[in-house]
Amino acid sequence: MRLDKYLAHAGLGTRKEVKLAIRKGRVSVNGEVCRKDDRKIQEGMDVVCLDKEEIYYEAVVYIMLNKPQDVVSATSDPTYETVLDCIDAFLPKDCFPVGRLDMDTEGLLLITNDGKLAHRLLSPKHHVEKTYLVDLAQPLQEGDQKKLENGSIVLDEEPVLPARVEILEDTQILLHIQEGRFHQVKRMLYAIGNEVIHLKRIAMGPLLLDEALASGEWRYLSEEEITALKNVA
Predict the structure, then answer these.
(1) Where is the signal peptide (predicted)?
(2) pTM score over 0.85
């Protein structure tokens, strides 16, 4: 593996940032300063240090992205920019977005190559809530909240699991759901005669969207966040 890729996978910055650190002589390999970003590194054999601190490569990555609109939740697409294109760091080839957000939906998206965790987070039987901030075309009518919360809405000939609703303003709610069906939030609101004007996911289980991340920005998850996700799933 290239030295710059090794450092980026270890969570030490973007591609540009790690290349700069290498060229400034801040990186050593086996005790010798290395200024070549394409230096080949043997994992488990070579000792890589940044500012004299040994760096350990992480084979599994966990990234929080504040997904912008007009970007597809896919690993590749012939026409549109994908969520992986938003990550300006080296990623293992097997990384993928956990679940999908529609092109016009923004907010929290987890990107990882931990397939086991992803499956558990998305499986309805594990009841991991996904929380959405929803702007509506009109206020909820009498009985609408009950319909959303009692599981009486049917999509694709199958009832949805009961949701939780928090009314923030006349036309703004928090909707907590335990599934991730195709266009689920929009279709649930359409089923009660309403329409979603704007949709943003702000949480997945215990993982909250970092308010410091602007649209399109990302960061690696902390150890505490990773542990919390694994515990809830």
Answers:
(1) none
(2) no
Of 100, 21, 112, nearest to 64 by C-alpha is 112
Judge whether 3-54 and 62-123+206-232 match in fold. no
Q: What is the pLDDT of residues 26-41, one digit of tens each?
A: 999 999 999 999 999 9
- Nearest Cα neighbor of 29 from 11, 41, 44 is 41
Q: Does domain 3-54 have CATH number 3.10.290.10?
A: yes
104's tokens = 């016009």
Structural domain 62-123+206-232, CATH architecture: 2-Layer Sandwich (3.30)
Residue 216 tokens read as 């399109």
Catalytic residue, chosen from 46, 77, 85, 102, is 102
102 is catalytic: yes
